[in-house]
Amino acid sequence: MLRYITSRLGQSLILLVIVSFIGFAVLTLAPGGPLSQFALSPGMTQEQIAKIAAQMGLDRPLPVQYFDWLRHLVVGDWGTSYRDGQPVLAVIGSHLFATLLLMGTATVISVSLGSAIGIASALRRGTAFDYTMAVLAMVALSIPTFWFGLIAIYAFSLQLGWLPAGNMYTVGDGSVLDYLRHLILPAVVLALVDVAVWSRYMRTSTLTVINQDFVRTARAKGLTRRRILFRHIVGNSLVPMVTLAGLQLPTVLGGALVTETVFTWPGMGRLFLDSLGYSDYPVVMGLLMASAILVLLGNLAADLIVALIDPRILLD
Amino acid sequence: MTAMTTEPARRPPFLKSRALRRFVRHRLALVGLVMVVLLSTACFLGPHLLAYDELSIDLRARFAPPFSGAHIFGTDPLGRDIAARLFHAGQISMAVGFSVMIIATCFGSVIGVVSGYYGGRTSAVLMRVVDAFLSFPSVFLLLALAAFIQPGPVMIALIIASTSWMEVARIVEAEVKSLRNQDFVQAAHMLGLTGRWIMFRELLPNAIGPIIVAATLTVARAILLEAYISFLGYGIQPPLPSWGNMLNGAQQYLQSAPWLAIVPGLAITIAVTGFNFIGDGLRDAFDSRTQEH
């Protein structure tokens, strides 16, 4: 187990290094680079821009710049926001909770609903229900999240007036119920794609488990259908889904960005777009790196959890 | 030389193969094909049948609702005909989708075949790079790139392709790895064929099924991503219409003019659903494992 953890940690570290290469390349090699905001302002002369470049250390060789950038990244000095002078990590940190709340709620919805649909489809394989769910899942995967958000706002808040159209809470009303009312629409919209993905994989996973010997044994022992389903099938089909949850992280995070934009949700996605609008490069780069690190950590956690609940994985 | 390495069963003629018959039997794939064909026909013929072009502004007819007058899908805040813009935008969105598909599939296939053929350290490095790219939420990476680089339709296609090649690379790598030790590859080795010949003339053609499936799904994905970034204002720039940038600004008129949001979104959904249905049908057609079920 210890060897597995170390090797898995090593892999993540290597990935992190490559991720940092890509991040640095995006920052540096994009035409305009980090100085484009100065180049755009009319009062700037070429000499002034060169001077700023020297001050920021941008006239040094690229490898030197890279290691300097990486060193700052590692010690937690991610620069300061151009917009309000706050440290980048603090800015990101203050938006992290809203995004995690949204993603967490959406994941709870997609895991429970998706698993239920997936198991039901597997048990009723080949029926009209199975077929309908397959088609619905594919349609759900094809609907743009932001457009689904717009339609949801139109239907449920503008036409029916049931739920608020955006924001995380009403100013002056801090009740849990108020937070919940604001959470429902964006969380459901974000969950849509994941329900589809989850239900498809859960169906496959359940079908694999159903045909295994221990299920036949359970049936032969005379256990009730319900007991076989909940004690033997559901638990075992969920194991590969932990890995899937890790792999789905980038999609969910990207989806959260889009959902937050439509619902003016004050999370990382909203921050990302605002920072793009202000050409606030340190925050943009910080968010790019933070999201990749979050994904790597999520995958690592998923693999370790799988190894913990299903030690057979260590034999490979 | 080639006559010896060519086994008759190696590359079944696609159009006559069982794969096509199974694709046709797959009703959903046909539905998808019909959706895509109808939508493309509308986008390419539509502009010639309408009385308005996509840029003509009619200030007296601003916010005309659909199906109510001369403008069948209504007009936008500037009084431009939505149908004309929708069809024109469709040409652009689909062109972006197909360009991304071609670029991403070619690049991904090359990475995949090189990695799968050489294996070992080459494969380890290349596949870790693939993993690293997959660690970024593609919307974040796309938006950062699109904001840094002056966007034009060609650049947008390149940027989207740069975040869409990894799936193909993985699929091709896995496929090539499983083919690498088969007899026809050994035979090619013994004939003294070069690595490049074996990779691109022997291995890649045999992985064509999964590549076509991945390519189809890439079109769907690219149309979605283009819509996302254009909706957020970093993709195709007005006055050039795209399905995504037609939705940009639709949110503020959601109450008074909901058709601004509904019409382009439906077009995106139809296009993406169509390509996804086709991709699913192709997967069933090529995948011998699904035969058993």
From TrEMBL, chain A:
tRNA-binding in keyword set: no
One GO CC annotation: plasma membrane
Disulfide bond is among the record's keywords: no
TM regions (residue ranges): 12-30, 96-123, 135-159, 179-198, 228-249, 283-309
Protein location: Cell membrane
Membrane topology note: Multi-pass membrane protein
UniProt entry keywords in alphabetical sequence: Cell membrane, Membrane, Transmembrane, Transmembrane helix, Transport
Regions annotated as coiled coil: none
GO terms (BP aspect): transmembrane transport
Gene3D superfamilies membership: MetI-like
Stretches assigned to the ABC transmembrane type-1 domain: 96-306
Family membership: Belongs to the binding-protein-dependent transport system permease family.
Stated name of the protein: ABC transporter permease subunit
Organism the protein comes from: Pseudooceanicola albus
TrEMBL record, chain B:
Domain of life according to the entry: Bacteria
Domain ABC transmembrane type-1 as annotated: residue spans: 90-279
Membrane topology: Multi-pass membrane protein
GO CC field: plasma membrane
InterPro entries noted in UniProt: BP-dependent_transpt_permease, MetI-like, MetI-like_sf, OppC_N
Keyword Membrane attached: yes
Residue ranges crossing the lipid bilayer per the database entry: 28-50, 95-118, 207-236, 256-279
PROSITE patterns xref list: ABC_TM1
Annotated compartments: Cell membrane
Membership in a protein family: Belongs to the binding-protein-dependent transport system permease family.
Protein name: ABC transporter permease subunit
UniProt lineage: Bacteria, Pseudomonadati, Pseudomonadota, Alphaproteobacteria, Rhodobacterales
